[in-house]
């Protein structure tokens, strides 16, 4: 599997960009009651690096939604597998995602969380594939916009594997 991956973003590139994002977010939320909501599973390395780059008092929470039935194409269906275990009502929520592709996952998650009446709701993603969007969803912080490639590593999987690659690479089937 690993021999089918060509590097796209190096560990050093990711590290530098995550530090920038963390600093920007910390500045934007200074003095606010912030809950950072990670979308499992793919977000785990990015999330851990990002919150540690925020010099800020904050809380973390996690949700898990399923959008891909395994394989490389979105099914368009989004199921909530694990819900957030804390209230965001009247608080500032920042949803953190690994990659925005069609936008269907975030659209659904955004509606669901908006119904809970947070003081604000913003979205941060490490990677964005704007050319693949099927539905408009505002993304407030983007690590790297990328072309339409299927990428793996730094949390992103192929059928559950390759999440532990320390860099992001393009998978060639
Ligand atoms: P969307 O709902 O925006 O189409 O898809 C979001 C989810 O699809 C991501 O959280 C991720 O799990 C998966 N996904 C989209 N593009 C890629 C990709 O290039 N590589 C991998 N590994 N997963 C992707």
How would you sum up this structure, described in words?
- This protein is an alpha/beta fold and 173 residues long.
- It has a single domain (2-171), classed as Rossmann fold, CATH 3.40.50.
- It contains 3 helices and 9 strands; from the N terminus they run βαβαβββαββββ.
- The chain has helices at residues 11-28, 44-52, 104-114; strands spanning 5-9, 34-40, 58-66, 79-82, 92-100, 120-128, 141-145, 151-152, 168-171.
- The strands form 2 sheets. A 6-stranded mixed sheet has the order 4-3-2-5-6-7, with helices on both faces. A 3-stranded antiparallel sheet has the order 1-9-8.
- Helix 2 (44-52) links the parallel strand 2 (34-40) and strand 3 (58-66).
- Helix 1 (11-28) crosses helix 2 (44-52).
- The chain is globular, with a radius of gyration of 15 Å.
- Bound molecules: guanosine-5'-monophosphate.
- The site of guanosine-5'-monophosphate has 18 residues, from strand 5, helix 3 and strand 8.
């Amino acid at each position: 599997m690993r021999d089918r991956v060509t590097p796209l973003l190096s560990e050093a590139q990711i590290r530098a960009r995550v530090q920038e994002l963390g600093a920007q977010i910390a500045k934007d939320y200074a003095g606010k009651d912030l809950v950072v909501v990670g979308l499992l599973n793919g977000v785990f390395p990015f999330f851990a690096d990002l919150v540690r780059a925020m010099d800020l008092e904050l809380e973390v929470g996690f949700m898990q939604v399923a959008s891909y039935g395994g394989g490389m194409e979105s099914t368009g269906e989004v199921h909530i597998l694990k819900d957030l275990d804390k209230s965001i009502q009247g608080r500032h929520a920042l949803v953190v995602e690994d990659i925005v592709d069609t936008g269907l996952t975030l659209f659904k998650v955004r509606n669901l969380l908006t119904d809970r009446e947070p003081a604000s709701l913003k979205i941060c993603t490490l990677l964005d594939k704007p050319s693949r969007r099927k539905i408009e969803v505002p993304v407030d912080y983007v690590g790297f916009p990328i072309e339409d490639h299927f990428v793996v590593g730094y949390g992103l999987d192929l059928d559950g594997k390759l999440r532990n690659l320390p860099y992001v690479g393009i998978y060639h089937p």
